[in-house]
Amino acid sequence: MPRNAYVTDLKTLQGECTANFIRLSRLLGDLVAGETREVALVNQGRRLGALCLELQERAPYTSIVRVSQRGVLDALIESPRMRVHLYHDVRMAEVTDFQRQRHFHGRYRYPNSRMHQPDEKLQLNRFLGEWLEHGLAHGHSDLPELP
Fold it and tell me: What Pfam family does this protein match (any one) (predicted)?
């Protein structure tokens, strides 16, 4: 029996992008372009690595943030990293680059040459949301607490 084609769920994708904008805004605070903020990821008193947020560009309507992670396994495996565009006018943040892959479509045929999932764009934005939420819930910083 043939499968039904995947249909992009715009409402869910927009909701995830809106939540990510709020999460990133809380973590970035008053960072200016060129600055980086590290959030130490700690579990049971042991430092496991750091969530690194680098504000690459800030313009009146958009910003670009590089999100990456440093950890104890950096010498062995490539840590995840992504570029996120923040759209200030609509209060949304969208993953536009992940592990050197760019321009994700809302839907892919499966299988495909890059082995993207049919809902790859939604999955990447969900991953960003879980990553940021973990940093907000369990991260530590030497900086004063954000408002």
Answer: DUF1249
By CB atoms closer than 10 A (0-12, 13-18, 19+), residue 126 is middle
Cα–Cα distance for residue pair 125/133, rounded to 1 Å: 12
How does pLDDT run across 23-79, given as a tens digit for each residue? 999 999 989 999 999 998 877 777 778 899 999 999 999 999 999 988 766 666 678
Using alpha carbons only, how large is the chain's radius of gyration in Å?
16
pLDDT digits (tens, 9 = 90+) for 98-137: 877 777 766 666 676 766 666 778 889 999 999 999 889 8
Query: Residue 103, class by beta-carbon neighbours within 10 Å (0-12 exposed, 13-18 middle, 19+ buried)?
Result: exposed
> What is the value of pTM for the model shown?
0.81
CB atoms under 10 Å from CB of 124, counted, come to 23
- Backbone region of residue 25 per phi and psi (left: phi > 0; alpha: psi in -120 to 50; beta: other values): alpha
Query: What are the boundaries of each domain within the chain?
Result: 10-138
The CB density around residue 12, as the number of other CB atoms within 10 Å, is: 13
Cα–Cα distance between 49 and 7 in angstroms, integer?
A: 37
> In the numeric block, which tokens belong to residue 10?
């715009």
